[in-house]
Automatic annotation (TrEMBL):
<feature type="region of interest" description="Disordered">
    <location>
        <begin position="289"/>
        <end position="321"/>
    </location>
</feature>
<dbReference type="InterPro" id="IPR021104">
    <property type="entry name" value="KfrA_DNA-bd_N"/>
</dbReference>
<keyword id="KW-0238">DNA-binding</keyword>
<feature type="compositionally biased region" description="Gly residues">
    <location>
        <begin position="305"/>
        <end position="315"/>
    </location>
</feature>
<feature type="domain" description="KfrA N-terminal DNA-binding">
    <location>
        <begin position="3"/>
        <end position="120"/>
    </location>
</feature>
<protein>
    <submittedName>
        <fullName>DNA-binding protein</fullName>
    </submittedName>
</protein>
<dbReference type="GO" id="GO:0003677">
    <property type="term" value="F:DNA binding"/>
</dbReference>
<dbReference type="Pfam" id="PF11740">
    <property type="entry name" value="KfrA_N"/>
</dbReference>
Amino acid sequence: MPTREQVETAARALRRAGDRVSVRNVRRLLPKGGSYSSIGPLLATWKLDADYRPGKLPPAAPAGLGRAVDAFVAQVWAAATAEAEKVVLRERRRLDERERIFEREAVAAWAEVDRLNEEVSRLEGEVRRLRLQVPRAPSSASSPAEKVCQETPEEAAQFERMRGFIGSLPGNWLARADGSGNRRAPPPSDAEMEALLQPLEARWAAERDADAARSREERFWDGVMEEAAAVLRASSEGVLGTAEILAGLGPDVVAAAEVFGGLDEDVLCRKLRLAVGDDKLFRLLRNDRYGLSGDDGSPGRRGGRGSGPAQGSGRTGSSRR
């Protein structure tokens, strides 16, 4: 009975020779032979361990084939690497160009933002300057249009007198009947009506002239005085000199005043003194310093921009001298 070692040795010899490893061929190589039942299990175990599959082994590779394959692989790898480097460099140049374009666009955008900010600042200053030249609405009206359309007490009284006069005309006609009271007198003639209405027309004309006397220049200087009052309210002490008030008004107000002859310390001092009084905006203190009228100077009692005398109470007049 052959041993495992004898069977495996014979199987390896057959495999090296390129012959088929079978029970019959192994039995021929065994020194004492053996039965199929004794050789078969041992050979089957060897085939599993050696991963043997029937068939001829491929011929050996020609000499030098490995070196040729290695050289070819090296050439292909070098060509692929060079092409990849070209692609990477080309993509990098494209990205660098896009980055430069974005940087130029960003610089242009920031320059435009700066220009727009300067334009906004300029327009805000222009708006402030123009507001000083626009008539201020009274405290009871929220806009200049309301001020124009609002009926003053004097106008209401005039209209009431006019309505009373018109209403009395039919009674006058009846009073002109003859003694019998059976007929009415004719209505007043044009001359009589003109004589009756002439005093009212003269009064209305005088009042229109008085309203027209309050010129644009007066409204402008009233606005400057209100700005000066706002500067005093915003100060920590509530008391400032003429130079300090002028500095608080700012260059926009000074520029707007050029239309009306300019604004300096002397002009501002005269305007402030015209607005000094119990029923006006300011009060004159020592050393030519000014405070708000009705204010004791303590920060706790000073009102905000909306407090103090009503707007327009500190009229300064249109004359600079």
